[in-house]
Amino acid sequence: MQPFAGVRILDFTQVFAGPFGCYQLALLGADVVKIERPGGDDMRRGPPNKDWSARNLGTGFMGINSNKRCLVLDLTKPKAIEIVHRLAAKADVVMENFRPGVMDKLGIGYDALTAINPKLIYCAISGFGQNGPERTTAAYDGKIQAMSGLMSVTGHPEMGPTRAGFAVCDAIAGMTAAFAVSSALYQRTHTGRGQLVDVAMLDATLSFLTTYVTDYTIGGHVQGQLGNRAQSRLPTADVFKCKGGHILLAVNNEKQFIALAKAIGRPDLPKDPRFVDWPARLANDAALRAIIEDVLAEADDKTWEARLTEADVPCSRVWTIPEIVAHPQLAHRDVLQRVETAYGPQTFVGSGFRLAHGGGRIDRAPALPGAHAEEILEEAGYGEAEITALRRDGAI
Question: What does the pLDDT look like over 87-99, one tens digit per residue?
Fold first, then answer.
């Protein structure tokens, strides 16, 4: 049995952070009912693939919405609000990522739904949380990357701050929400009580930047942009040029430095006065880099990756998405899972961890808007005539 088998989640979230969090729980067996507005989630029509967007199944949307059932509701209709109330009465969790106050105005906020179901866990994801001076300020991943300090430590000093290559703050908020909901569900087994789970993107991102924050609050040091160098700031924990490409070295201790020196045919380096210890290597950073890159220029990135890995030197060339997707390590661990769909077999990323039993799996491909309306409403007690009337009135 999967960890969240039998747990019903009403998913009002949209775009990335919320749907990603709900997806983590759906992978682990939760029955996630995705409630979308007419026309569906904006991610259904996102770039870059126009063909899939035309089907209302944008590839970005599909990446985080497997295992969910879908119901379309026009929440401006009183009958649609009645449906939410009825579904909430039997739900375990509600997750939403509207601005604070929006769900309350609709009559389906925390107070309204917990009055119906006191055991309900209500998770609200927003940019800044449900209180504080910024509570109603609009927030997007880029804004939080910039505001949290993340961009101030990302990029090259000579080029200025840089965004991460994916929506990292959205992903952090979604994963934090999944963890928070899991915590609340576990606590409910002891207390029998539901509660409000308040997830702010800014708070969640700061929790991931904790070492940089304490560098300042305790040590008084403000971290700057290190380019591709590790937080250790060591000269051999960086990206180096090689023939026709680049390779990242993660050489952070003496044993690894000695192994690197031998692997590149320079066993003399650890005895060179310029490189005899880490302070000396930092003081002679440019000279050490020049020596390493002169040797690396003799072969390509794949060759050096193989040689250095064999010598137990932590490293990696810069892999592309198509390359890593084909890596046998992922196949061995069943990270990428294939699902049969109406459009043929499709491949998705599953859980980022493995359980000895009852772990994450993908059983259902992402659905079209409203694909499960009848079965969801029948489970809630609606009859065929009532469902027909709801369709006629535009509530569903």
Answer: 999 999 999 999 9
Closest to 194 in 3D by CA, of 84, 85, 94: 94
Q: How many CB atoms lie within 10 A of CB 113?
A: 23
Structure tokens at 205: 């991102």
Name the token pair of 110: 């925390």
Cβ pair 79, 395 in contact under 8 A: yes
Only one residue has tokens 């991460």, namely: 164
Structural contact between residues 396 and 71, judged by C-beta atoms closer than 8 angstroms = yes
pLDDT tens, 6-26?
999 999 999 999 999 999 999
Active site residues: 170
Cα–Cα distance for residue pair 96/368, rounded to 1 Å:
20
Let me know: does 349 contact 23? Beta carbons within 8 Å. no
The pLDDT tens digits of the residues spanning 32-79 come to 999 999 999 999 998 888 999 999 999 999 999 999 999 999 999 999
| 32/24 Cα distance (integer angstroms) | 10
* C-beta neighbour count of 209 within 10 angstroms: 17
User: Across-strand partners of 72?
Assistant: 36
Structure tokens at 309: 């890995």
Distance CA 20, CA 68 (A): 12
